[in-house]
Amino acid sequence: MTPSHTPFEALLAATRDYRQAMDPSTLHGFLTGMALGPDEGFDAPWLETALGLPAITARESFPDDLAADAVDEIVDAFLLDDAFELRVETDPAEGERQDLWCRGFVEAVKLANDAWKERTEADTELGRQMVFINMIADPQRYAPIFFAPSVDIQSASFIAEIRAMAAPLNLVDETLRELAM
Questions:
Q1: What letter does residue 48 receive in the DSSP assignment?
Q2: Residues of 118-139 as b/e, b for ≥16 C-beta within 10 angstroms?
Q3: C-alpha span between 173 and 156 (Å, rounded)
Q4: CA atoms within 13 Å, Cβ hemisphere of 54
Q5: Quick check: 123 pLDDT over 60?
Q6: Angle between helices 98-111 and 124-137 (to 10 degrees)
Q7: Residue predicted with more confidence, 15 or 53
Q8: Alpha-carbon distances, residue 47 vs 31, 35, 52, 131, 176 (angstroms)
Q9: Across 120-130, average pLDDT
Q10: Within a 13 Å sphere around the CA of 161, how many CA atoms are in the beta-carbon half?
Q11: How far, in Å, CA of 120 to CA of 126, rounded?
């Protein structure tokens, strides 16, 4: 790792050989969920999830200290308050792919689902914010709950509308800062 590379960048470079690994936006969301989530998430096969590999393959062939360093980098960024930045790729046709980042975050939540459920039940505002993160991650799943059946949930305009409605970057940032405290 060169001095100009962050731990996350080093992890990205190391995952390039893993075809099933998460893309950069999804991976950053996933690692953020791991960094801010309950410790139970680390008891699950989190590295395997990120790499898209069977447990034995990931543990034997990948230096997991790279992933741990990337998680530590995210925690440190939150401790420095304004140092955290969402790493979201931009698609020329679709704009910012916040949905990918949120999908990664949701994947981390799934690894400690019961503990996250306790958190959101104890803090209804956090629960509400997590609904928005889930809506951004999977609008097709959540749209029928909030929109009429006549709404075309496959259209690019719908996805843009739901992102604008949830104000995702601000909302996600607020949610994450709340979790870090």
A1: H
A2: ebbeeeeebeebbebbbbbbeb
A3: 24
A4: 2
A5: yes
A6: 120
A7: 15
A8: 10, 13, 8, 25, 21
A9: 85
A10: 12
A11: 6
